[in-house]
Design brief:
The chain is an alpha+beta fold. The protein has three domains: 117 residues, no CATH class; 54 residues; 150 residues, Histidine kinase-like ATPase, C-terminal domain (Heat Shock Protein 90), CATH 3.30.565. 53% of the residues lie in helices and 18% in strands. The chain is built from nine helices and twelve strands. A five-stranded antiparallel beta sheet has the order 2-1-5-4-3, covered by helices on one side. Strand 9 and strand 10 form a beta hairpin. The longest helix is centred in the N-terminal third of the chain and has 44 residues. The chain is rod-shaped, with a radius of gyration of 49 Å.
């Protein structure tokens, strides 16, 4: 209900309540007065009138009162006073003798403004009205004044920079809607500030990364080119070798820049995911077959163990999932030994998820490196000397898997190989 109609209904309730309580109190006052005032009738009184004469009366009437009663009947005045008590007189034919008229005396409230009943009714109406108004104003304070004061205080806090405290929804009608609107505005403002800070952090992160990580390959490229120009590479074979190394460094720089931009987009949620339902068994097997030749060239083996024995469907972005698997394959191939090294992909399922485990028999990961494994630009001791390691591969993989509502983690013991495990929701 809107605030306008609620206040209107509240005023109506106050008036009706005041009127009802006053009427009830006056009725009780009259009953109480009748019980203790002997001058007021407590039973029906009547008189029998015939031919402008009073034949019988249950009320003892003086000659003056009898004359006054007959005159009131002749002029059709239905009021009568007896011993200071006001009565309404009701005239009706007698059931036994129709020519006789029965005049009934009904106690009536005196119109005298100074009478006790009138004074009591006025005072009672005033007291009940004031009490009802106080109760209504207390409710108005709790549901109108207090929420407005709270909103004013919270908007002042927001203006001064406190955007973390939620604004509770309270108040009648439009006030509750206003509180909701301000709370939505606070959330949007908080998200905007967070997003702006994240953009600034990513900008600083990219600038710092380019200045730090690209410095080494740029220096190497310049060294190779200077070697050709200065005559250090004095044969065609050396010149070709120097130039090939410079090209590899440039390719490495391109890869690092692409990774930086990709990670920045993922971190700012600017990279869309085109997900669809895919049979994970066939997908993993297809990607594995693409890399099997590379492993064989280096004398390393690749296995696929499917424990599900049926097609398992998951909702993923196939291109981004391929990037994740490619990164894990490259890491594993780099850290397993030639001749005896192997990588096994194990597919299994739980009640609600499908698990893909990439298990190798390499050197494993040091315990001190495990908590930082998926952090950006983290590189373990083994990979620090490797030019191709930019330190973003696993961080990108984590962002992509989480973007597909999955999880990725690692299990390893130094000297006993490592396992990278991906959990994805399966199709029901």
């Amino acid at each position: 209900m809107s605030l306008k109609y609620r206040l209107l209904a509240q005023n109506l309730v106050v008036f009706i309540t005041t009127l009802a309580v006053t009427v009830f109190a006056v009725y009780c006052f009259m009953v109480f007065t009748n019980l203790f005032n002997p001058n007021i009738a407590i039973r029906d009184e009547f008189a029998v009138v015939y031919d402008n004469r009073i034949l019988y009366s249950t009320v003892t009437l003086s000659n003056f009162e009898a004359t006054a009663l007959l005159m009131n009947l002749s002029v059709e005045n239905n009021s009568f006073t007896h011993r200071g008590t006001n009565y309404r007189i009701i005239e009706e034919p007698s059931a036994q003798t129709p020519e006789h008229m029965v005049v009934r005396f009904v106690p009536a409230i005196s119109p005298d403004i100074g009478s006790p009943i009138t004074v009591f009714a006025f005072v009672m109406f005033l007291v009940v009205f004031v009490a009802s108004s106080i109760v209504a104003q207390i409710r108005n304070y709790d549901n109108i004044i207090a929420p407005i004061t709270s909103l004013k205080r919270r908007t002042d806090d927001i203006r001064q920079g406190d955007i973390d405290t939620a604004i509770p929804t309270s108040g009648f009608g439009e006030l509750g809607d206003l509180a909701d609107a301000i709370e939505n505005l606070r959330v949007e403002l908080k998200n905007s500030i967070y997003y702006r800070q994240k953009v600034d952090d990513n900008r600083k992160f990219i600038v710092s990364s380019i200045s730090h990580d690209l410095k080494t390959p740029v220096t190497s490229i310049r060294g190779y080119i200077d070697g050709v120009l200065d005559g250090v590479a004095d044969t065609n074979e050396k010149k070709e070798e120097y130039l090939k190394k410079a090209v590899l460094k440039i390719q490495h720089m391109n890869t690092m820049i692409d990774d930086l931009l990709l990670y920045s987009k993922l971190d700012l949620n600017q990279m869309p995911f085109s997900t669809c339902w895919i049979a994970l068994n066939s997908y993993i097997e297809g990607v594995m077959n693409e890399y099997a030749i590379d492993f064989e060239k280096e004398g390393k083996r690749l296995f696929f163990e499917d424990t599900t024995q049926k097609e398992i469907y998951v909702k993923i972005d196939s291109e981004k999932m391929r990037r994740v698997v490619q990164n894990i394959f490259d890491n594993a191939k780099k850290h397993i030994n030639e001749g005896e090294g192997w990588l096994k992909i194990i597919l299994r399922e739980s009640h609600a998820a499908v698990i893909v485990e990439f298990k190798d028999n390499g050197k494993g990961i040091k315990a001190k490196d495990m908590p930082h494994l998926f952090e950006r630009f983290f590189r373990g001791d083994e990979s620090r000397s490797t030019d191709a390691s930019g330190g973003l591969g696993l961080a990108i993989a984590k962002q992509m898997i989480e973007g597909m509502n999955g999880r990725i983690w690692a299990v390893s013991k130094e000297g006993e190989g490592a396992s990278f495990i991906i959990s994805l929701r399966k199709y029901r």
